[in-house]
Amino acid sequence: MSIETPPTAKKVPSERVHHGDTVVDDYAWLMAKDDPETIAHLEAENAYTQHTTAHLKPLQETIFQEIKGRTLETDLSVPTRKGDWWYYSRTEEGKQYGIQCRVPADGETPPDLKADESLPGEQILLDGNELAGDSDFFAIGTSAVSPDGTLLAYSVNFTGDERFTLKVKNLVTGETLPDEIPGIFYGGAWAADGSTFFYTTVDEAWRPDKVHRHVIGTPAADDVLVYEETDERFWIGIGLTRSERYLVLSAGSKITSEVRILEADDPTGEFRVVRPRKTGVEYGIDHAGDRFLILHNRNAENFEVATAPIEDPGTWTPLVEHREDTRLLDVEAFASHIVVHFRRDGLTGIRVLPTEGGTDRDALLAAAYEIPFPEPIYDVAPSGNPEFVTGRLRLGYASMITPPSVYDFDLRSRELILLKRRPVLGGYDPDDYEQFREWATASDGTRVPISIAVKKGTERPAPTVLYGYGSYEISIDPSFSVARLSLLDRGFVFAIAHVRGGGEMGRRWYEDGKFQHKKNTFTDFVACAEHLKATGWSSSVVARGGSAGGLLMGAVANLAPELFAGVVAEVPFVDPLTSILDPSLPLTVIEWDEWGDPLHNPDVYHYMKSYSPYENVSGQVYPPILAITSLNDTRVLYHEPAKWVARLREVAKGGPFLLKTEMGAGHGGRSGRYDSWREEAFTLSWILDTSKVTQ
C-alpha cells in the first residue's frame, strides 16, 4: 500500500443482534490487539498520517520551540510542609521527568529555594529520569511517605496500561527494600505504625475491586485481603485522613457511595461502615477532632455538609445546608478551621469556617467567610495541605490568562500571599490578553456558558478552537496553557463550551446531559459554535475534545459538520454502543450508571444507537478530522477511533480523515514532557493548517 493514499481497512462482516436490532460491524476485527493485521493497519495509518502532514514539519518544530522557549525547564514547585520536612519537586533542563525532593522543615514559611541550587540537607526521594531509564513510557502511580517520614511507598509503570509495581524505599539509608508487588492500582495508604501499607488491585475489567494489607519486610504472598467489592458497578480506594487518625476505605459507583473507616493505629482491625450504601446517595468523610464531617447529597442535589459523632458516624446533622445555586465540591477538616470548596455561577470558590470560636453550627456559620479573587473568570482549589494543625491554607489558582499560581492564605490576617506564579518566558504579559464569558442559547432555551481567551488587538471574526467535554460531571474550568499561546499569538480565539453533562453549573447541569438527556451535550456544543459565529467572534471553528469529549467530537461531526473547519478527537469514545454492550470490556458495567444499560434496556439501546458517532456516520460532507489514540489505553480502547476512521473513509465525503496511534502509550498519551510538547505541536500545526493559517 502506498503511503500517498489512505489505508483501506478490510471488511469482515460481524453480526450482532440486540433487542430485535441486527447490526453488521465490518471493522470489529480491529479489536484484536495482538493480531499482526491489526498492528499492520495501525502502522499503515501512522505512515499515511505522517506523509499527509509532512509539509507541517517546519511548523511543528517552530511550535515545539515556542512551547519549549516559554517554559522554564529548570524549575521547582513550592515546598509543602509535612511533619519535619518540606516536600517539593524539581524539573531540570533536558530531562523528561520530575525529581521528588525534601529538606528539613522549620516554621510555616516555605524555604527560599532556587531552581538551579540544592539546599543544605536536600534529599532526593525519587528521580523519574533514573527510574524511567531508556523506556519510551514511564509513570508513577503513587508516592506516599510513611507517617514517621522514614519510608517511601511508590509505584511505577512502563507501558501506559496503568498497572503499577509497588516498591518501598528506605529514606534513611537510601536503599530500595526487597518488597515488590506487581499489578496494583493507583494510590495507597500507610497505617500509623509506619510498617503497614494498604493498596488496591483491579479485576479483569480494570476495576479496582480489592484492598490488601502489606507488612513491610514480608512476602507479597502473605498480604491480607482486607476487602473485596463484588458489585461490578463500584470502584474502591483507600486513603488516610489529614489528621492521620483514620484509614478511609471508599466504595463508589457513578451515583452511590459507601465508606468504611478504621483507626489508623489498629491496622489489623475491622473496618466499620459509616452509612450503608443507598442507591443515589453519594457521600465522603473527613475527620475533624471530636467528630466527622460528611459531604453528601441525601435530599440535597447540590450536596450539603453534615457533622457526625465519632461513635455514630451514620447519624448526620446539617452544618452547611443545600443551596440550589451552589454545588459543594469538597470539605476539608483542619484543627482550627473547616474549608469548603464550592462552585457557583460556573466558577469555583473557597469558604472558610473558623472553629476556634466554637464548633456549634450557629457559631461556625456566623464566622464563615469566602475568599475573594480579582478576575471575572478563574479556577481555584485547595492544594497541598497535608498538615492538620496549620495557620495557612495552600491554594492553587489560574485563569485563562494568569499562569498557574500558588497562594498561601493566612487564616489569621486573611491575607493572600503569592508564593509562586509559573514563569512564562519570552516576554509573556497577561495584560496583552483578554478573557470573556459569553452565553449561548441552546435549542431548548438553556443558556450555556462559554469561556473565551484572545490576544488584545486580534481582528475579529477570527479562526477559533472550541473545546468541549461534557460528561461525568467533570468541569472544564478556565485554565492557562503555555501551548495555547502559539494559537493566540497567531490571531486565534480559544473558547471552552461548558456544555451540559459537565459539572460547571451544578449537579442538575450534569443530570441534564446524561442517560436519555445525553444529546443535550451535543446540541449545546453546536449552539456554542453557532453563537461564536453569529456574534462575530469566529470566522471558522475547529472543534477539539478528548476521551468522552471525543464522543462529543464524533457526535457534532455527524450533527452539524458544516459548522466546523476541522475536528480534533483525542483518545475518542466514538463507538460507545459496542463498548457499553460488552460487560467483559474494561469499565463497561461501571459506565452503565453514566450512559445507561443498553444490554438489558431496549430504550437505552436505541437512544445510544441514535447518537453513537460510529453508528451514525453518513454520506454527508465532513470536515477534516484528526483522531489521536494510544495502543495501550485501558479507558478508551484504540479500536474505537480506528473503526471510526475506517467507516468515515468508506461512507463519508470530505475529510481527509487521519488516525495517529501512539504505539507505546496509554490514555494520557506520551509520558515525557518533551515528547508531550512535540505531540501538542503536531496537533496545533494541524489545527493551523486546517484553519488556513500557515505562519
Task: Give a short synopsis of this structure.
GO terms for molecular function: serine-type endopeptidase activity. The protein is α+β, with helices and mostly antiparallel strands. It is built from 13 helices and 41 strands.
Question: How would you explain this protein's 3D organization?
Answer:
This protein is an alpha+beta fold and 695 residues long. 19% of the residues lie in helices and 34% in strands. The protein is built from 13 helices and 41 strands. An eight-stranded mixed β-sheet has the order 32-33-35-34-36-37-39-41, with helices on both faces. Strands 3, 4, 5, 6 and 7 form a five-stranded antiparallel β-sheet that branches. A four-stranded antiparallel β-sheet has the order 8-9-10-11. Helix 2 packs across helix 13 and helix 7 packs across helix 8. The two termini are 33 Å apart. The model has no long low-confidence stretch (mean pLDDT 94). Belongs to the peptidase S9A family. Keywords: Hydrolase, Protease, Serine protease. It comes from Planobispora siamensis.
The share of residues in helices is: 10-25%
* Low-pLDDT residue intervals, each spanning 5 or more residues: none
Using only CA atoms, what is the Rg?
25 Å
What is the number of helices?
Answer: 13
The end-to-end span amounts to: 33 Å
Total E-strand runs:
41
Structural category is: alpha+beta
Strand order of the largest sheet: 32-33-35-34-36-37-39-41
* β-sheet strand percentage: 25-35%
Looking at how many chains there are and whether they match, the oligomeric state comes to single chain
> Overall mean pLDDT score?
94
Q: How does the overall form come out from the CA principal axes?
A: globular
Q: What's the main sheet like? A: 8 strands, mixed
